[in-house]
Amino acid sequence: MNIWMAVVLLILVIALVGTLSLTKKSDEDYRGATKKNTKNLTLIYGVVILLSLIALGVYISLSS
Question: pTM higher than 0.70 for the full model?
Fold first, then answer.
């Protein structure tokens, strides 16, 4: 049991070191990519909500 706890702790330490080493690198085009992603996600959510409302309306009209 103790050996498994040591393995888990070792994996956690490796994951922490890897995560911290990746955070040192910055992305110069982050703002532009974020703006584009936000527009795309907003469009996707809008279409999904609209289609969901249409499907709900069809379901309610057919079930009555």
Answer: no
Q: Do 56 and 62 form a contact (C-beta atoms < 8 A)? A: no
Q: DSSP string spanning 16-31?
A: HHHHHHHHTS--TTHH
Chain-centroid distance, C-alpha 26 = 20
Q: Where are the domains of the chain?
A: 38-64
DSSP 64: -
Total Cβ atoms within 10 A of residue 43:
10
pLDDT in tens, the chain (64 residues): 789 899 999 999 999 998 888 777 776 777 777 888 899 999 999 999 999 999 999 999 998 7
